[in-house]
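Support request, please re-run this one:
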Amino acid sequence: MLDVSIVIYLDDILIYSNNPADHQKHKVLCRLRANRLYCKEFKYEFHWDFVEYLGYILLKVKAILDWPVPWKVKNIQSFLGFANFYCHFIHEYSDIVIPLIRLTCKGTLWKFNNKCMAAFNELKQAFTHAPILTHWVSDQQLVMETDISDYAIAAILSIYLEDSKIHPIAFLSQSLYNAELNYNTHDKELLAIFKAFKY
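Re-run finished. Output below.
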């Protein structure tokens, strides 16, 4: 059940499901009781479409999928403001948002073209299909993968778990600015490694 339909952080338990019928099958409270762990009634909530958990607001994916297509700069800024908060959960976030960020630059004419629409849709899909991140375990082997483009660097930090599979624990994605844009490929790759270690 852990990391399949349940996430636990200290004494906070988050149970999630695709639908109400699956939610009833989890029987988490029965397992807690069987292990003599009890919850105070005023501390739990059931059947919410959104919840604040560890400072993050988790909401139904439908709200993101139904986000209207931006028709002015303020709409893009609003969407990016929401998305930026969750950028560490989306692989290659900085590469995806480049066409949208360009629209917000001062003096740029509004032209929401096919590239912008593709970026907007890709970002919405990334929210709905983002992999579940695993907690870092200090005695497990850490794996770092880095990637670069002309405009951004990215890294995935993962660990090997008991199932001998690699599980992501964090994503780093950052746009390149000023002098960094002029770095050669080798230096951009070193920058990605440096930023990943610093992360």
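The chain has three domains: 6-59, 62-129, 142-198. The CA atoms of residues 6 and 15 lie 5 Å apart.
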